[in-house]
Amino acid sequence: MLQQQDSNDDIEDVSLFDAEEETTSRPKKSKIRHPVASFFHLFFRVSAIIVYLLCELFSSSFIACMVTIILLLSCDFWAVKNVTGRLMVGLRWWNHIDEDGKSHWVFESRKASPQDSKTVSEAESRIFWLGLIACPVLWVIFAFSALFSFRVKWLAVVIMGVVLQGANLYGYIRCKVGSRKDLTSMATSYLGKQFLRQTTGDDQTS
């Protein structure tokens, strides 16, 4: 079962796919249970970065390099959004239009329970979140590098990488953490704890 949350913070229990129900009886293992999904979770995004870094060494055609990178980024966006998140960590986000033409963003996560907690591989979870976080950070670095080195023609490609991979990162954080209210409350709580800790430390030193 999954916990579904739309843009209006309405929550209901839904099944991700019927096939997912079969996984609830499988024991939790540290090994990789979905090797193909894990491979493609990293393949497209890492390949896009490698092509960006090395394409000028092997090809003088900017158009060919740009098209290759955009295709890899698009494949990565689709694979991570629709396949690897569901299989590797039990998360999914998507958009639908209701009868009134209003757009709704839905963020789903597998509902926590003793049975469902056994369906996620720890190794796959680490691979998923490492790839999901590290690659957008690299694209942000590339964006600043392209901007300050006046590589204007590459700036659009880099921004595409930031947007596509950043969208997946934001979507899955929303799935994992919850609504914007939850994100705000977590940030406020963290800052409050840091302030209290600093205040306590100052009082002890004085």
UniProtKB/TrEMBL annotation:
Keyword list, A-Z: Membrane, Transmembrane, Transmembrane helix
Segments crossing the lipid bilayer: 36-54, 60-80, 127-148, 154-173
GO cellular component terms, semicolon-separated: Golgi membrane
Primary subcellular site in the record, as a coarse category: membrane
Membrane topology category: Multi-pass membrane protein
UniProt keyword Signal, yes or no: no
Key word Membrane present: yes
GO biological process: protein secretion; vesicle-mediated transport
Domain of life of the source: Eukaryota
Localization per Swiss-Prot or TrEMBL: Membrane
Family: Belongs to the TVP23 family.
Protein name: Golgi apparatus membrane protein TVP23 homolog
Organism for this UniProt entry: Physeter macrocephalus
